[in-house]
Design a protein that fits this description.
- The longest helix is centred in the N-terminal third of the chain and has 39 residues, at about 5-40.
- About 80% of the residues lie in helices and about 0% in strands.
- Helix 1 packs antiparallel against helix 2 (about 45-75), helix 4 (about 120-145) packs parallel to helix 6 and helix 5 packs antiparallel against helix 6 (about 185-215).
- The chain is mainly alpha-helical and about 240 residues long.
Length: about 240
Amino acid sequence: MTHEHILSAFDRDLESIQAAVMKMGGVVEEALRNAVTALATRDVELAERVRAGDRAVDEMDLAVKSDAARILALRAPAASDLRAILAVIEISSHLERCGDYAKNIAKRTRVLAGMSEVGGAVAALRRMALFVEQMLSDALDAYIRKDAPRAEEIVARDAEADQMYNVLFRSLLTHMMEDPRNITACMHLHFIAKNIERIGDHATGIAEQVIYLVTGALPEDDRPKEDRTSGELRESED
């Protein structure tokens, strides 16, 4: 087989898994959008569809990684081609985690649907979710375009997502202190806010992979984290 044929086969394989990961990204974006819509409208049925749909995201992640492993074994890519395969594996992992967070948000809808609304909290969550969803969409767009400057701008946006989370966290604390009857609902809402903030972190991780793909170097781990709330929630639920 000539070098040109090998190169063509690698390019076809790479295009295939890139298309798969972009499809996965679209599914994850829709899951986040539906999870937050279900919360806002108290649509338990929609929330259950989001939860059930997470299995498909997991299967897509496994398929991407299986195909990537096959390409590594068969094509033995060098340098920039190797970076392309490693980047798609990392991006798939980030998307799988985002799918978990969307599922976690949906899990809270059934409980919150039976509780009194906490003034302004759901609207603030929707604004934050829209911001983070746009980060995710832009990160995937930067990936497919190999646009490192745009990816750097997305990394910088993570601080704003963190600040939105901090403002919401303080608001929920105020509601809990003013009326103890709000405590249970506010704890669920805080968990949702943290999951949305985590999706922003993974969108940032995708953007950092774009920078790695284009430049060969990951950004230094010195981006400021604006999440100053105490304690950490687990990254996902069983």
